[in-house]
Amino acid sequence: MATYRYLQPLAKWLKTELARIADPAKPCAISKRQQLEVALGLLKAARQDDDLSELIKWCTLLEQYALYLPDCLAEVAYQQALFWRDQFDYPRLESVVGKIAGEDPIWKLKKASLLAELGRFDEGERLISDAFKDLRARSRHNPNSIYIQSRLAWAHWMFRMVEFSRNYGKLEQLPNTYKTLKTDPWDHITHIKDKVSKQQDEYFKNQESVEPLFEQGHYRDHSNDVRIIGERSPFFLLDGLAECGGLPLRWQNINLLADVANQLVISEVADNSMRHYVLAIRAAHTDGSPSIKECFSRIRIACAPLNVVEVLSDRLICSIEYWCKQASVGTQEQKQHAINAIRVFIEVLARLVIRLDPEKAKRVFLLAMQIGQDSALRHHWLYEVIGHIANYSLESIPSDQLS
Question: What is the CA radius of gyration of the chain?
Fold first, then answer.
């Protein structure tokens, strides 16, 4: 399970070279299974790069030769689901999440984490419980297997969190066995937390750009200093851990990795990439979350690339429409989850609308009016954000186009 530490973006030249040996239809010095493992790495890279055409290309190849790689179809479905999750395309996420199934019990955890994104917590709890029971039985037959024990540790950790979310009682301690075998989940989470905290401390330190010197009236200006960072970004450690372990940022109201994600996006203030804004939204639990206030401040939005603002706005509009529907026809747990999701998405869209052209601003304003008239959405958590999106979208429309 420690393989998440090696997940990082592939250089363009390396992806080109790997693509030459990834197709089993073109025999080379490595086996077909090894070729598919390379193809799987390129599929993950396409998902990280938000590249739909490359994602489709490698999904098609892996599905064609799935016989040569264990749990290949489950991995393909999982990468597709992660891609649609980060696109906030919940209908497509729903369409592929059911295909995540394999021999390895870890797939149950991974599927459960994505069901949590859809507000289907009851289904996810059953999968986590099943995975824990399965791995516990396997560990009795093979107690020294790191492969089994590492998976059991994460399943046990998630099982405890789910139980705590239900009862809010005393949180059971994990057995010392996991720490002895170096599979304790808290060790991995703490490792990432420490890196993020270090990065956040550097960020706050750099905010103090003027250093007073001992000599009276003298100071040193650090605002234009160039800083070289040799370590990989904690973003990829967090993303890799969540992907490998099947961990959501939050389970209902229980924070799992969301606080780390909040710290991370706030400290990487210079990052204007799509993945940065997506993580900021996913880390938020309410419209007043730190990641929303910091990453979608007026200055940060003004600095964001226009294409990122436009694409993200389109995705948010579709996701708001999806959750508005779920608030009316979904299960009770989905309805509650829908309200939380809507309040975050509406607040972000309200902040982004100031960068949109008048036609898109009109579309956002009409969406705000539609939400305000929906009886299923008359919730006190939504009153303020609906006011924001209505006012900000109206202000973005020129006065001569208001009629």
Answer: 23
Long-range interactions of 289-298: CB distance < 8 A, separation 24+: 289/262, 289/344, 290/262, 290/266, 291/261, 291/262, 291/265, 291/266, 292/344, 292/347, 292/348, 292/351, 294/265, 294/266, 294/269, 295/265, 295/266, 296/347, 296/348, 296/351, 296/352, 298/351, 298/354
**Closest Cα partner for 295 from 324, 258, 268?**
268
- SS3 at position 350: helix
The pLDDT of residue 200 is above 70: yes
Q: Which two tokens stand for residue 249?
A: 């940022």
Going by C-alpha positions, the residue among 379, 366, 372, 369 that lies closest to residue 337 is 379
Tell me how crowded residue 217 is: count the other CB atoms within 10 A of its CB.
Answer: 6
Say whether 258 sits in a helix, a strand or coil: helix
Identify how many contiguous H helices and E strands the chain contains and give both numbers: 19, 4
Whole-angstrom distance, CA of residue 25 vs CA of residue 6: 28
Task: Identify the band that residue 216 occupies on the pLDDT scale cut at 50, 70 and 90.
Answer: low
